[in-house]
Design a protein that fits this description.
alpha+beta; three-stranded antiparallel β-sheet; Multidrug-efflux Transporter Regulator, Chain: A, Domain 2; 8 helices; Multidrug-efflux Transporter 1 Regulator Bmrr, Chain A
């Protein structure tokens, strides 16, 4: 087909080269109904574009670079008004804002998870107490019954965590126990509750507890195996009241035998 003298036409290949786009993408635009070729040769099926269509191709490319959906671009091209453009740009801005929020949260979660695995490396000693200032935290808890084993309490917490409403909460992947202090001082581990940390508290629930901000006496131990110095703990706690909060936070150092991982025991201190 010869190009018309009245209207300068460009083959799909020429158009693709000049506009910096692939031939396949131009075909995709056509198939999606965004931009049909100005002329399609009835015999050869060759596609030709006119100069006036270059403006539309460039606009489509730019809007796609903003990740705007094809359906919105089609509406913009169909309506051809600035009002429509503004409306759909605002709609896309809100989409991107939500995506940015989601990605920022994901980034923060990755950083937290990295810190979780490296946290205990800050302390290269076991059983020797140290003080840590901690902010307020929230946990989702289930009672630990005398007849419970690990499977029973973990499945009960999992069911609660994934129940209606609570399944919309944002959780940290860190589990732990609330423990009995008198038993701990006697060299025994009696868990009272099993819990998972919340990233944030979104609403009140009877199973959501607040761990107060304050100074905590901490020590690292494989507490489920009874490996801590009870006498040393008693000595350190002599000048403090019996604590209202004793938690043991799990820190996985093995992704297979995780039930035998080390814990950081945290005891909230209150002067007598």
């Amino acid at each position: 087909m010869e190009r018309s003298k009245e209207k300068h036409l460009y083959s799909i290949g020429e158009t693709a080269r000049m506009m910096g786009i692939s031939v396949q993408m131009l075909r995709n635009y056509s198939n999606a109904g965004l931009l049909k070729p100005d002329v399609v040769d009835e015999i050869s099926g060759y596609r030709y574009y006119s100069f006036k269509q270059f403006h539309y191709i460039d606009r489509i490319r730019y809007l796609r670079s903003l990740d705007m959906p094809l359906s919105d671009i089609e509406e913009i091209l169909k309506e051809g008004t600035v009002d429509t453009m503004q409306k759909l740009l605002e709609k896309q801005r809100q989409r991107i804002e939500e995506e940015r929020r989601r990605i920022n949260e994901m980034y923060e979660d990755i950083v937290w998870y990295q810190q979780y695995f490296s946290y205990l490396q800050q302390y290269d000693f076991d059983n020797i107490p140290y003080l840590v200032q901690l902010d307020k935290r929230y946990i989702l808890t289930v009672d630990y019954k005398e007849t419970d084993d690990v499977e029973a309490v973990e499945t009960r917490l999992a069911a609660l965590k994934n129940s209606e409403g609570l399944n919309q909460m944002h959780y940290r992947r860190q589990f732990g126990y609330m423990a009995d202090f008198d038993a701990l001082s006697a060299g025994k581990f009696y868990p009272k509750k099993y819990f998972v940390y919340l990233k944030e508290k979104q609403f009140d629930h009877p199973n959501i507890l607040e761990l107060p901000a304050g100074t905590y006496l901490c020590f690292r131990s494989r507490i489920c195996a009874g490996e801590w110095d009870a006498a040393l703990l008693k000595k350190y706690m002599q000048k403090y009241r019996e604590p209202a909060y004793v938690v043991a936070n799990e820190y996985e150092d093995n992704l297979i035998e995780y039930h035998h991982c080390p814990y950081e025991v945290q005891i909230l201190l209150e002067e007598k």
